[in-house]
Protein backbone atom coordinates (compact mmCIF):
# COMPACT_ATOMS: atom_id res chain seq x y z
CA UNK A 1 0.00 0.00 0.00
CA UNK A 2 1.38 3.34 -0.96
CA UNK A 3 -1.23 5.80 0.15
CA UNK A 4 -4.66 6.18 1.62
CA UNK A 5 -6.49 5.96 -1.71
CA UNK A 6 -5.15 2.50 -2.21
CA UNK A 7 -6.18 1.32 1.21
CA UNK A 8 -9.71 2.27 0.25
CA UNK A 9 -9.59 -0.20 -2.57
CA UNK A 10 -10.41 -2.94 -0.09
CA UNK A 11 -14.09 -3.70 -0.15
CA UNK A 12 -16.53 -4.17 2.68
CA UNK A 13 -18.15 -7.57 3.01
CA UNK A 14 -21.74 -6.87 2.03
CA UNK A 15 -24.54 -9.37 2.55
CA UNK A 16 -26.08 -10.46 -0.76
CA UNK A 17 -29.48 -9.04 0.13
CA UNK A 18 -27.94 -5.58 0.56
CA UNK A 19 -26.09 -5.85 -2.76
CA UNK A 20 -29.34 -6.78 -4.47
CA UNK A 21 -31.26 -4.00 -2.78
CA UNK A 22 -28.76 -1.37 -3.90
CA UNK A 23 -28.73 -2.65 -7.46
CA UNK A 24 -32.51 -2.83 -7.61
CA UNK A 25 -33.10 0.60 -6.09
CA UNK A 26 -31.09 2.56 -8.65
CA UNK A 27 -29.79 4.69 -5.76
CA UNK A 28 -26.41 5.10 -4.19
CA UNK A 29 -25.98 3.64 -0.69
CA UNK A 30 -26.19 7.00 1.11
CA UNK A 31 -29.42 8.04 -0.62
CA UNK A 32 -30.92 4.58 -0.16
CA UNK A 33 -29.90 4.41 3.49
CA UNK A 34 -31.26 7.91 4.20
CA UNK A 35 -34.63 7.16 2.59
CA UNK A 36 -35.07 3.87 4.43
CA UNK A 37 -33.83 5.33 7.70
CA UNK A 38 -36.48 8.04 7.44
CA UNK A 39 -39.16 5.38 6.87
CA UNK A 40 -38.05 3.27 9.82
CA UNK A 41 -37.17 5.95 12.39
CA UNK A 42 -39.40 8.80 11.18
CA UNK A 43 -36.47 11.21 11.27
CA UNK A 44 -33.61 12.09 8.96
CA UNK A 45 -30.30 10.35 9.71
CA UNK A 46 -27.80 12.42 11.64
CA UNK A 47 -24.36 11.24 10.55
CA UNK A 48 -21.54 12.19 12.92
CA UNK A 49 -17.95 12.54 11.74
CA UNK A 50 -14.70 12.62 13.60
CA UNK A 51 -11.16 12.96 12.42
CA UNK A 52 -8.90 10.13 13.39
CA UNK A 53 -5.18 9.76 13.09
CA UNK A 54 -4.05 6.91 10.94
CA UNK A 55 -0.69 5.58 9.86
CA UNK A 56 0.26 4.25 6.54
CA UNK A 57 3.68 3.15 5.49
CA UNK A 58 4.89 4.57 8.81
CA UNK A 59 3.64 8.03 7.93
CA UNK A 60 0.86 9.76 9.88
CA UNK A 61 -2.26 10.50 7.83
CA UNK A 62 -5.70 11.88 8.63
CA UNK A 63 -8.79 9.75 8.19
CA UNK A 64 -12.50 10.22 8.85
CA UNK A 65 -14.81 8.02 10.80
CA UNK A 66 -18.58 8.26 10.41
CA UNK A 67 -21.18 6.96 12.89
CA UNK A 68 -24.95 6.87 13.03
CA UNK A 69 -27.26 6.13 15.95
CA UNK A 70 -29.82 3.48 15.04
CA UNK A 71 -32.12 2.77 17.97
CA UNK A 72 -29.99 1.19 20.65
CA UNK A 73 -27.09 0.63 18.29
CA UNK A 74 -24.32 2.86 17.10
CA UNK A 75 -23.10 1.89 13.66
CA UNK A 76 -19.60 2.90 12.62
CA UNK A 77 -18.23 2.64 9.09
CA UNK A 78 -14.65 2.01 8.09
CA UNK A 79 -12.14 4.81 8.38
CA UNK A 80 -11.68 6.56 5.08
CA UNK A 81 -9.62 9.42 3.71
CA UNK A 82 -12.70 11.44 2.66
CA UNK A 83 -15.93 12.26 4.46
CA UNK A 84 -17.98 10.83 1.65
CA UNK A 85 -16.01 7.61 1.73
CA UNK A 86 -16.59 7.31 5.49
CA UNK A 87 -20.30 8.13 5.07
CA UNK A 88 -20.72 5.55 2.30
CA UNK A 89 -19.07 2.90 4.44
CA UNK A 90 -21.32 3.80 7.40
CA UNK A 91 -24.43 3.60 5.20
CA UNK A 92 -23.35 0.20 3.91
CA UNK A 93 -22.96 -1.11 7.46
CA UNK A 94 -26.30 0.44 8.42
CA UNK A 95 -28.34 -1.08 5.59
CA UNK A 96 -28.46 -4.65 7.02
CA UNK A 97 -29.57 -3.17 10.38
CA UNK A 98 -32.45 -1.40 8.60
CA UNK A 99 -33.37 -4.65 6.85
CA UNK A 100 -33.65 -6.37 10.24
CA UNK A 101 -35.63 -3.52 11.78
CA UNK A 102 -38.08 -3.10 8.93
CA UNK A 103 -38.39 -6.51 7.33
CA UNK A 104 -36.80 -7.50 4.06
CA UNK A 105 -39.99 -7.75 2.08
CA UNK A 106 -41.32 -4.29 2.91
CA UNK A 107 -37.93 -2.81 2.14
CA UNK A 108 -37.58 -4.51 -1.20
CA UNK A 109 -41.00 -3.20 -2.21
CA UNK A 110 -40.13 0.33 -1.21
CA UNK A 111 -36.87 0.26 -3.15
CA UNK A 112 -38.30 -0.85 -6.48
CA UNK A 113 -37.23 1.56 -9.18
CA UNK A 114 -39.72 3.14 -11.57
CA UNK A 115 -39.70 1.98 -15.14
CA UNK A 116 -38.10 4.49 -17.52
CA UNK A 117 -40.62 6.52 -19.48
CA UNK A 118 -38.54 7.16 -22.58
CA UNK A 119 -35.25 6.45 -24.32
CA UNK A 120 -33.34 9.12 -22.38
CA UNK A 121 -34.55 7.85 -19.01
CA UNK A 122 -33.58 4.38 -20.09
CA UNK A 123 -30.00 5.53 -20.68
CA UNK A 124 -29.90 7.13 -17.26
CA UNK A 125 -31.36 4.06 -15.59
CA UNK A 126 -28.93 1.69 -17.28
CA UNK A 127 -25.99 3.94 -16.39
CA UNK A 128 -26.90 3.99 -12.70
CA UNK A 129 -27.89 0.32 -12.57
CA UNK A 130 -24.49 -0.70 -13.81
CA UNK A 131 -22.67 1.82 -11.60
CA UNK A 132 -24.52 0.60 -8.51
CA UNK A 133 -23.99 -3.05 -9.41
CA UNK A 134 -20.26 -2.46 -9.84
CA UNK A 135 -20.18 -0.75 -6.44
CA UNK A 136 -21.49 -3.84 -4.69
CA UNK A 137 -18.24 -5.63 -5.50
CA UNK A 138 -16.14 -2.65 -4.42
CA UNK A 139 -17.89 0.10 -2.41
CA UNK A 140 -15.01 2.45 -3.17
CA UNK A 141 -16.64 2.86 -6.57
CA UNK A 142 -19.59 4.62 -4.90
CA UNK A 143 -17.25 7.24 -3.51
CA UNK A 144 -16.10 8.15 -7.03
CA UNK A 145 -19.63 9.20 -7.97
CA UNK A 146 -19.73 12.90 -8.66
CA UNK A 147 -19.93 12.96 -12.42
CA UNK A 148 -20.91 9.77 -14.25
CA UNK A 149 -20.75 9.40 -17.99
CA UNK A 150 -21.60 6.53 -20.32
CA UNK A 151 -21.62 5.76 -24.04
CA UNK A 152 -24.38 3.61 -25.52
CA UNK A 153 -24.92 1.88 -28.82
CA UNK A 154 -28.45 1.81 -30.19
CA UNK A 155 -29.52 -0.64 -32.87
CA UNK A 156 -32.49 0.92 -34.63
CA UNK A 157 -33.37 -2.29 -36.43
CA UNK A 158 -33.93 -4.20 -33.19
CA UNK A 159 -34.45 -1.42 -30.64
CA UNK A 160 -31.57 -2.83 -28.57
CA UNK A 161 -29.47 -0.47 -26.50
CA UNK A 162 -26.09 -1.59 -25.22
CA UNK A 163 -23.85 0.15 -22.71
CA UNK A 164 -20.31 0.26 -24.13
CA UNK A 165 -18.30 2.31 -21.68
CA UNK A 166 -18.90 4.01 -18.32
CA UNK A 167 -16.67 6.26 -16.22
CA UNK A 168 -16.64 8.62 -13.25
CA UNK A 169 -14.24 11.43 -12.42
CA UNK A 170 -13.68 15.16 -12.08
CA UNK A 171 -9.90 15.58 -12.05
CA UNK A 172 -6.92 15.89 -14.34
CA UNK A 173 -3.40 14.92 -13.27
CA UNK A 174 -0.85 17.22 -11.65
CA UNK A 175 1.77 18.73 -13.92
CA UNK A 176 4.58 16.76 -12.29
CA UNK A 177 2.83 13.48 -13.19
CA UNK A 178 2.78 14.29 -16.91
CA UNK A 179 4.19 11.25 -18.69
CA UNK A 180 6.83 11.47 -21.39
CA UNK A 181 6.16 7.86 -22.30
CA UNK A 182 2.38 7.91 -22.83
CA UNK A 183 1.89 5.75 -19.74
CA UNK A 184 -0.41 8.04 -17.71
CA UNK A 185 -3.93 9.25 -18.47
CA UNK A 186 -3.81 13.03 -18.33
CA UNK A 187 -7.50 13.86 -18.10
CA UNK A 188 -9.63 11.76 -15.76
CA UNK A 189 -12.94 13.61 -16.16
CA UNK A 190 -15.84 11.18 -16.58
CA UNK A 191 -16.74 12.11 -20.17
CA UNK A 192 -13.13 11.94 -21.27
CA UNK A 193 -12.52 8.49 -19.77
CA UNK A 194 -15.85 7.24 -21.10
CA UNK A 195 -14.79 8.30 -24.60
CA UNK A 196 -11.41 6.63 -24.27
CA UNK A 197 -13.29 3.52 -23.15
CA UNK A 198 -15.45 3.79 -26.27
CA UNK A 199 -12.32 3.87 -28.41
CA UNK A 200 -11.13 0.69 -26.68
CA UNK A 201 -14.45 -0.92 -27.64
CA UNK A 202 -13.93 0.27 -31.24
CA UNK A 203 -10.54 -1.47 -31.41
CA UNK A 204 -12.14 -4.65 -30.16
CA UNK A 205 -14.83 -4.38 -32.84
CA UNK A 206 -12.17 -3.90 -35.53
CA UNK A 207 -10.50 -7.07 -34.32
CA UNK A 208 -13.82 -8.94 -34.51
CA UNK A 209 -14.37 -7.77 -38.09
CA UNK A 210 -10.87 -8.77 -39.12
CA UNK A 211 -11.50 -12.25 -37.73
CA UNK A 212 -14.77 -12.63 -39.60
CA UNK A 213 -16.97 -12.18 -36.53
CA UNK A 214 -20.09 -10.02 -36.18
CA UNK A 215 -18.95 -6.41 -35.67
CA UNK A 216 -20.47 -2.95 -35.35
CA UNK A 217 -18.30 -1.90 -38.33
CA UNK A 218 -18.34 -2.76 -42.03
CA UNK A 219 -15.70 -2.24 -44.70
CA UNK A 220 -16.37 0.65 -47.08
CA UNK A 221 -15.11 1.11 -50.63
CA UNK A 222 -12.55 3.61 -49.39
CA UNK A 223 -10.81 0.84 -47.47
CA UNK A 224 -11.79 2.35 -44.12
CA UNK A 225 -14.36 0.91 -41.75
CA UNK A 226 -17.61 2.66 -40.89
CA UNK A 227 -20.29 2.19 -38.26
CA UNK A 228 -23.18 0.12 -39.67
CA UNK A 229 -26.07 2.35 -40.76
CA UNK A 230 -28.61 1.00 -38.24
CA UNK A 231 -26.30 1.76 -35.32
CA UNK A 232 -25.92 5.02 -33.44
CA UNK A 233 -23.91 6.19 -30.44
CA UNK A 234 -25.41 8.16 -27.53
CA UNK A 235 -23.73 9.88 -24.61
CA UNK A 236 -25.15 10.24 -21.10
CA UNK A 237 -23.57 12.66 -18.59
CA UNK A 238 -24.97 13.20 -15.09
CA UNK A 239 -24.32 16.96 -15.20
CA UNK A 240 -23.43 19.55 -17.86
CA UNK A 241 -19.81 19.24 -19.02
CA UNK A 242 -17.27 21.41 -17.18
CA UNK A 243 -16.14 24.65 -18.85
CA UNK A 244 -18.35 27.10 -20.67
CA UNK A 245 -21.44 24.86 -20.64
CA UNK A 246 -21.47 24.92 -16.86
CA UNK A 247 -21.25 28.65 -16.48
CA UNK A 248 -24.47 30.29 -15.57
CA UNK A 249 -24.49 34.04 -15.30
CA UNK A 250 -27.29 35.72 -13.43
CA UNK A 251 -29.36 37.75 -15.88
CA UNK A 252 -28.39 41.42 -15.64
CA UNK A 253 -30.94 43.81 -14.11
CA UNK A 254 -30.83 45.90 -17.25
CA UNK A 255 -30.87 43.76 -20.36
CA UNK A 256 -27.43 44.08 -21.89
CA UNK A 257 -27.27 45.58 -25.32
CA UNK A 258 -24.64 46.47 -27.85
CA UNK A 259 -21.05 45.93 -26.73
CA UNK A 260 -21.94 44.79 -23.22
CA UNK A 261 -24.05 41.99 -24.62
CA UNK A 262 -21.33 41.04 -27.07
CA UNK A 263 -18.73 40.82 -24.30
CA UNK A 264 -20.97 38.72 -22.16
CA UNK A 265 -21.68 36.29 -24.99
CA UNK A 266 -17.99 36.05 -25.76
CA UNK A 267 -17.10 35.31 -22.16
CA UNK A 268 -19.74 32.62 -21.94
CA UNK A 269 -18.60 30.76 -25.03
CA UNK A 270 -14.81 31.04 -25.02
CA UNK A 271 -12.73 27.90 -24.73
CA UNK A 272 -11.55 27.21 -21.21
CA UNK A 273 -9.17 25.00 -19.32
CA UNK A 274 -10.05 22.57 -16.57
CA UNK A 275 -8.81 23.24 -13.12
CA UNK A 276 -7.64 20.25 -11.22
CA UNK A 277 -7.26 21.84 -7.82
CA UNK A 278 -10.12 21.65 -5.35
CA UNK A 279 -12.51 24.55 -5.40
CA UNK A 280 -16.24 24.81 -5.65
CA UNK A 281 -16.64 28.08 -7.48
CA UNK A 282 -18.33 27.02 -10.70
CA UNK A 283 -17.16 30.02 -12.64
CA UNK A 284 -13.60 29.71 -11.45
CA UNK A 285 -13.73 25.95 -12.06
CA UNK A 286 -14.17 26.72 -15.71
CA UNK A 287 -12.07 29.76 -16.18
CA UNK A 288 -9.19 30.55 -18.45
CA UNK A 289 -7.13 33.13 -16.63
CA UNK A 290 -4.40 33.46 -19.23
CA UNK A 291 -5.25 35.53 -22.21
CA UNK A 292 -2.05 35.85 -24.20
CA UNK A 293 -2.28 37.67 -27.48
CA UNK A 294 0.27 35.41 -29.11
CA UNK A 295 -1.02 31.96 -29.96
CA UNK A 296 2.49 30.50 -29.68
CA UNK A 297 2.25 30.89 -25.91
CA UNK A 298 0.00 27.85 -25.83
CA UNK A 299 2.95 25.58 -26.51
CA UNK A 300 4.23 24.80 -23.08
CA UNK A 301 7.27 22.64 -22.71
CA UNK A 302 7.76 19.62 -20.52
CA UNK A 303 10.58 21.41 -18.71
CA UNK A 304 8.31 24.37 -18.12
CA UNK A 305 5.63 22.16 -16.57
CA UNK A 306 8.22 20.40 -14.39
CA UNK A 307 9.44 23.86 -13.40
CA UNK A 308 6.02 24.64 -11.98
CA UNK A 309 4.00 26.07 -14.89
CA UNK A 310 0.39 24.97 -14.81
CA UNK A 311 -0.51 21.98 -16.98
CA UNK A 312 -3.48 23.13 -19.02
CA UNK A 313 -6.16 20.71 -20.12
CA UNK A 314 -9.10 21.88 -22.19
CA UNK A 315 -12.49 21.61 -20.50
CA UNK A 316 -15.04 18.92 -21.31
CA UNK A 317 -17.30 21.54 -22.95
CA UNK A 318 -14.52 22.22 -25.45
CA UNK A 319 -13.72 18.57 -26.01
CA UNK A 320 -17.40 17.75 -26.60
CA UNK A 321 -17.52 20.62 -29.10
CA UNK A 322 -14.56 19.07 -30.88
CA UNK A 323 -16.21 15.63 -30.91
CA UNK A 324 -19.27 17.15 -32.58
CA UNK A 325 -16.97 18.49 -35.28
CA UNK A 326 -14.31 15.80 -35.74
CA UNK A 327 -16.00 12.70 -34.31
CA UNK A 328 -15.47 10.54 -31.25
CA UNK A 329 -12.76 8.31 -32.72
CA UNK A 330 -9.79 10.70 -32.30
CA UNK A 331 -6.74 11.05 -34.54
CA UNK A 332 -5.22 7.56 -34.44
CA UNK A 333 -8.38 5.66 -35.29
CA UNK A 334 -9.24 8.14 -38.07
CA UNK A 335 -6.62 6.32 -40.13
CA UNK A 336 -8.74 3.17 -39.97
CA UNK A 337 -12.37 4.25 -39.61
CA UNK A 338 -14.72 6.94 -40.91
CA UNK A 339 -15.66 9.49 -38.25
CA UNK A 340 -18.22 8.30 -35.68
CA UNK A 341 -20.42 11.03 -34.23
CA UNK A 342 -22.73 10.87 -31.25
CA UNK A 343 -26.40 10.94 -32.23
CA UNK A 344 -27.72 12.44 -29.02
CA UNK A 345 -26.54 13.82 -25.71
CA UNK A 346 -28.49 13.21 -22.51
CA UNK A 347 -27.70 15.35 -19.48
CA UNK A 348 -28.98 14.12 -16.12
CA UNK A 349 -29.77 17.51 -14.64
CA UNK A 350 -31.57 20.70 -15.42
CA UNK A 351 -29.61 23.28 -17.38
CA UNK A 352 -30.03 26.12 -19.81
CA UNK A 353 -30.60 24.37 -23.14
CA UNK A 354 -29.96 27.43 -25.28
CA UNK A 355 -26.67 28.13 -23.57
CA UNK A 356 -25.39 24.56 -23.85
CA UNK A 357 -26.43 24.46 -27.50
CA UNK A 358 -24.52 27.70 -28.06
CA UNK A 359 -21.42 26.22 -26.45
CA UNK A 360 -21.54 22.81 -28.10
CA UNK A 361 -22.46 23.93 -31.63
CA UNK A 362 -23.38 27.52 -32.36
CA UNK A 363 -20.10 29.13 -31.34
CA UNK A 364 -18.18 27.12 -33.96
CA UNK A 365 -20.86 27.08 -36.67
CA UNK A 366 -18.69 29.42 -38.77
CA UNK A 367 -15.87 26.88 -39.10
CA UNK A 368 -15.86 25.01 -42.39
CA UNK A 369 -14.53 21.49 -41.92
CA UNK A 370 -13.57 19.42 -44.96
CA UNK A 371 -15.05 16.04 -45.91
CA UNK A 372 -15.55 13.61 -44.17
CA UNK A 373 -15.88 15.94 -41.19
CA UNK A 374 -18.76 18.32 -40.46
CA UNK A 375 -20.41 19.88 -37.45
CA UNK A 376 -23.12 17.54 -36.14
CA UNK A 377 -25.98 19.32 -34.42
CA UNK A 378 -27.28 16.57 -32.20
CA UNK A 379 -30.35 16.72 -29.95
CA UNK A 380 -29.62 17.49 -26.29
CA UNK A 381 -32.03 16.15 -23.68
CA UNK A 382 -32.18 17.09 -20.03
CA UNK A 383 -33.67 14.79 -17.43
CA UNK A 384 -34.12 15.34 -13.75
CA UNK A 385 -31.77 13.36 -11.62
CA UNK A 386 -31.99 12.71 -7.93
CA UNK A 387 -28.73 11.09 -6.94
CA UNK A 388 -26.98 12.23 -3.80
CA UNK A 389 -23.92 14.11 -4.91
CA UNK A 390 -21.87 15.35 -2.02
CA UNK A 391 -20.27 18.75 -2.54
CA UNK A 392 -17.50 17.69 -0.17
CA UNK A 393 -16.60 14.94 -2.57
CA UNK A 394 -16.68 17.01 -5.70
CA UNK A 395 -13.10 16.14 -6.51
CA UNK A 396 -12.67 12.42 -5.94
CA UNK A 397 -9.05 11.26 -5.94
CA UNK A 398 -10.08 8.21 -7.94
CA UNK A 399 -11.74 7.81 -11.31
CA UNK A 400 -13.30 4.53 -12.34
CA UNK A 401 -13.97 3.18 -15.80
CA UNK A 402 -15.88 0.13 -16.92
CA UNK A 403 -15.55 -1.36 -20.39
CA UNK A 404 -17.90 -3.63 -22.32
CA UNK A 405 -14.95 -5.34 -24.05
CA UNK A 406 -14.19 -7.43 -20.99
CA UNK A 407 -16.85 -6.29 -18.46
CA UNK A 408 -14.19 -5.11 -16.01
CA UNK A 409 -13.51 -2.00 -13.92
CA UNK A 410 -10.26 -0.11 -13.64
CA UNK A 411 -9.63 2.50 -10.95
CA UNK A 412 -7.22 5.31 -11.83
CA UNK A 413 -5.47 7.54 -9.31
CA UNK A 414 -6.22 10.99 -10.64
CA UNK A 415 -3.12 12.56 -9.09
CA UNK A 416 -0.82 10.38 -11.20
CA UNK A 417 -3.11 9.17 -14.01
CA UNK A 418 -1.96 5.61 -13.30
CA UNK A 419 -3.31 2.55 -11.52
CA UNK A 420 -2.50 2.38 -7.81
CA UNK A 421 0.70 0.54 -7.07
CA UNK A 422 0.27 -2.74 -5.29
CA UNK A 423 2.71 -4.02 -2.69
CA UNK A 424 5.84 -5.21 -4.46
CA UNK A 425 5.35 -3.03 -7.53
CA UNK A 426 7.82 -0.25 -8.07
CA UNK A 427 7.87 0.44 -11.77
CA UNK A 428 5.43 2.67 -13.65
CA UNK A 429 5.20 0.12 -16.46
CA UNK A 430 3.31 -2.11 -14.03
CA UNK A 431 0.57 0.44 -13.39
CA UNK A 432 -0.22 1.74 -16.89
CA UNK A 433 -4.00 2.17 -17.31
CA UNK A 434 -5.65 0.42 -20.24
CA UNK A 435 -6.82 3.83 -21.48
CA UNK A 436 -3.29 5.31 -21.72
CA UNK A 437 -1.83 6.50 -25.06
CA UNK A 438 0.84 3.82 -25.08
CA UNK A 439 -1.81 1.09 -24.85
CA UNK A 440 -3.88 2.64 -27.62
CA UNK A 441 -1.02 2.91 -30.05
CA UNK A 442 -0.34 -0.81 -29.58
CA UNK A 443 -4.00 -1.57 -30.30
CA UNK A 444 -3.72 0.68 -33.35
CA UNK A 445 -0.68 -1.17 -34.70
CA UNK A 446 -2.39 -4.54 -34.28
CA UNK A 447 -5.59 -3.26 -35.93
CA UNK A 448 -3.74 -1.67 -38.88
CA UNK A 449 -1.85 -4.91 -39.47
CA UNK A 450 -5.00 -7.03 -39.33
CA UNK A 451 -6.82 -4.71 -41.73
CA UNK A 452 -3.74 -4.61 -43.98
CA UNK A 453 -4.03 -0.86 -43.86
CA UNK A 454 -0.79 0.65 -45.10
CA UNK A 455 1.16 2.63 -42.50
CA UNK A 456 4.37 4.30 -43.56
CA UNK A 457 5.57 4.38 -39.98
CA UNK A 458 7.30 1.51 -38.31
CA UNK A 459 8.11 0.42 -34.81
CA UNK A 460 10.63 2.76 -33.32
CA UNK A 461 8.82 5.84 -34.62
CA UNK A 462 7.41 8.60 -32.44
CA UNK A 463 3.79 8.50 -31.27
CA UNK A 464 3.00 11.71 -33.19
CA UNK A 465 4.04 9.99 -36.43
CA UNK A 466 1.25 7.46 -35.91
CA UNK A 467 -1.29 10.20 -35.19
CA UNK A 468 -0.20 12.15 -38.25
CA UNK A 469 -1.13 9.18 -40.47
CA UNK A 470 -4.69 10.52 -40.26
CA UNK A 471 -3.84 13.54 -42.44
CA UNK A 472 -7.45 14.73 -42.91
CA UNK A 473 -8.14 14.60 -39.22
CA UNK A 474 -4.95 16.41 -38.22
CA UNK A 475 -5.41 19.10 -40.88
CA UNK A 476 -8.98 19.81 -39.75
CA UNK A 477 -7.99 19.75 -36.09
CA UNK A 478 -5.12 22.21 -36.63
CA UNK A 479 -7.25 24.55 -38.76
CA UNK A 480 -10.00 24.42 -36.16
CA UNK A 481 -7.67 25.46 -33.34
CA UNK A 482 -6.38 28.36 -35.42
CA UNK A 483 -9.95 29.35 -36.27
CA UNK A 484 -10.90 29.34 -32.57
CA UNK A 485 -8.07 31.76 -31.83
CA UNK A 486 -8.77 33.99 -34.83
CA UNK A 487 -12.43 34.21 -33.89
CA UNK A 488 -11.57 35.37 -30.39
CA UNK A 489 -12.86 32.23 -28.69
CA UNK A 490 -9.56 31.95 -26.81
CA UNK A 491 -6.61 29.61 -26.98
CA UNK A 492 -6.83 25.88 -27.46
CA UNK A 493 -3.98 24.77 -25.22
CA UNK A 494 -2.04 21.68 -26.15
CA UNK A 495 -0.02 19.31 -24.05
CA UNK A 496 3.75 19.85 -24.35
CA UNK A 497 4.94 18.38 -27.65
CA UNK A 498 7.57 16.30 -25.86
CA UNK A 499 4.80 14.38 -24.06
CA UNK A 500 3.64 13.03 -27.44
CA UNK A 501 7.01 12.14 -28.89
CA UNK A 502 7.72 8.90 -27.11
CA UNK A 503 8.99 6.07 -29.26
CA UNK A 504 6.52 3.32 -30.09
CA UNK A 505 7.97 -0.15 -29.82
ZN1 LIG B 1 -14.87 17.92 -17.26
UniProtKB/TrEMBL annotation:
Ranges of biased composition (kind: Basic and acidic residues): 259-273
Disordered: region residues: 247-289
InterPro entries given in the database record: A_deamin (IPR002466)
Entry-linked SMART domains: ADEAMc
GO cellular component terms given for this protein: cytoplasm; nucleolus
Pfam families documented for this protein: A_deamin
UniProt domain A to I editase: residue ranges: 165-502
GO biological process: adenosine to inosine editing; RNA processing
GO molecular function, one term: double-stranded RNA adenosine deaminase activity
Coiled-coil region list: none
Name the UniProt record assigns to this protein: A to I editase domain-containing protein
Organism: Diploscapter pachys
Amino acid sequence: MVDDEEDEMQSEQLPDKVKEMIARSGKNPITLFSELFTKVYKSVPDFAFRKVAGRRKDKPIQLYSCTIEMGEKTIEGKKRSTKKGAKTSCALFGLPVLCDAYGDEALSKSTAIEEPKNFQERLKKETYNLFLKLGTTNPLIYATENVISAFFLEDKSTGNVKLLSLATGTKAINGESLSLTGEAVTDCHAEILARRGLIRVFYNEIQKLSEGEESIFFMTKSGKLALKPDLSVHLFISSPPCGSARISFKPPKQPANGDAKKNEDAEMTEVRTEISAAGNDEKKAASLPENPTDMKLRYKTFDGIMGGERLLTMSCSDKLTKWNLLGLQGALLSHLIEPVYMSSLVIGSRANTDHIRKVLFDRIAGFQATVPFSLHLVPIHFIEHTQDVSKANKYSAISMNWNATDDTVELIKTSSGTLPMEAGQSDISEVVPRLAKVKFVQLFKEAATKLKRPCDVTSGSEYTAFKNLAKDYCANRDEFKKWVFKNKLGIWHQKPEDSKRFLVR
